[in-house]
Amino acid sequence: MNFFHYIGQYLLMVKGMFSRPENSKMYWKEFMRQCSDIGIGSLGIVTIISVFIGAVSTIQTAYQLVSPLIPRSTIAQIVRDTVILEFAPTLVCIVLAGVVGSKIASELGNMRVSEQIDALEIMGINSKAYLIRPKIVAALVVIPLLVVIAMVLGIRGGRYAGGMANIISDYAYDKGLLQNFVPYNVIFALIKSYVFAFIIASISAYFGYFVKGGALEIGKASTKAVVISCILILFGDYVLSALLL
Amino acid sequence: MIEVRNIKKAFGGKTVIEDVSAVMKTGQCNLIIGASGSGKTVLMKCIVGLFEPDSGEILYNGKSFTAMKHEERTEVRKEIGMLFQGGALFDSLTVEQNVMFPLNMFTKWNQKQKSDRVNEVLARVNLVDTNKKFPAELSGGMKKRVGIARAIVMNPKYLFCDEPNSGLDPQTSLVIDKLIREITTEYNITTVVNTHDMNSVMEIGDYILYLYQGKKEWEGNNKEIIFTKNKLLNDFIFASDFLHDAKEMRMLEERGKVPPGLDLEGQNPQ
Ligand SMILES: Nc1ncnc2c1ncn2[C@@H]1O[C@H](COP(=O)(O)OP(=O)(O)OP(=O)(O)O)[C@@H](O)[C@H]1O
Ligand SMILES: [Mg+2]
Q1: What is the pTM (predicted TM-score) of this model?
Q2: Average of per-residue pLDDT values in chain B
Q3: N or C terminus: fewer CB in 10 A for chain A?
């Protein structure tokens, strides 16, 4: 019963987001602000994570591939595919659920509790359209970009780690990267990142927008937003892999 | 004109507003008074549609607001200015940007026109040199005044103020009361003010609705309130001995029966 209430409320929120902007310029400004908040705000953490993920995958793959019959370049191939298929989209989005999701939920929660959302409504502004839509659209634009950056940096990180630990030469690594490359993997990763971006932004917005109570509830709402987003990302990851691979 | 007809509102089985009706005329200051927790804020939010009343009807200029669709309500709301009890300023914007927000959203004015208008309303609420400050850097009373400035910047037809002068010093409080009075008569708008400030009641109370535990206990104006025999209202509004004495004086004054020997001005020790 309760579960359906939440789903209904969530769907109504998404539906309520679509209305003609009262002033396109203001909506554009809000969209740009969100892009820079989400993009610039998480670029650092995404860089660190992806470089290390790539590095660790290289070392661990090499550790597992002990047979001398397998050429070293295979390591690069495996690192490439795991980074593109799983680590860059899923892991980065899980981290972004924490960074971006909690930010969205607490920003909206604070606006709800301090009546700023009511103030917008009283001015005759559709607060869902003005506050939530730019966040979701910004997430849809920026998060896939971050995922692409994470792919590149992850593969780069693997190359550095392979060189530094004398596991694989840069030449062999680069050669491995081009072996059996399936462009569809990148498309699959991008599809995943669009879905995850929507999950992160809309779920966090939902929990923030409908906060009831005070400062304590804002904290609870942003925790819930992160937990539910992560669960849905993993679930979505499974469903998409089953359907599209 | 705003008509409130038999509004009821309950939260989870607890009745907060019980069968309240009122007629709030244009060009006058309509006050909702009552103790803390009596339901003033809830009633005001029902009137502007932030809460849906459980039953009853709200009419703006004869049109049922309650029956309106979302889009029609939006049109009415563009003519509403509201000050929230906590100010409800946008944290991420400066004072200037807060007040300018409705102008940015709904007008095609150029930057100069907009900042002139912003400075004009900020001056009216006695705020200068705060344009670049953020709400977090303001005192409670300053936030209130920025909230008022934002509420009036679009020249609304309906002005709602939830406790405009709680947290203000008596002098600023008077300035705000005067301002509310001025814009109400100047632009002939319908003003609704929640307050428990005795001074405001006397200064601007053209119509006063006294809420007691969610029910309308009394209604009248600031002349009538002095002579009221209603025990609850008397206890509420003239709570202190000082106010009680002031009331007695005012009664005498109103009746034109000030005793000859007693010079009211002379009571002032200066
Ligand atoms: N959103 C809400 N959910 C549940 N109960 C509420 C809600 N808002 C207000 N109430 C209850 O309604 C009653 C009236 O509250 P209201 O805020 O209208 O009082 P008030 O007259 O404005 O008081 P004050 O002068 O302190 O602002 C209180 O008992 C409060 O607990
Ligand atoms: Mg109140």
Answers
A1: 0.90
A2: 89
A3: N
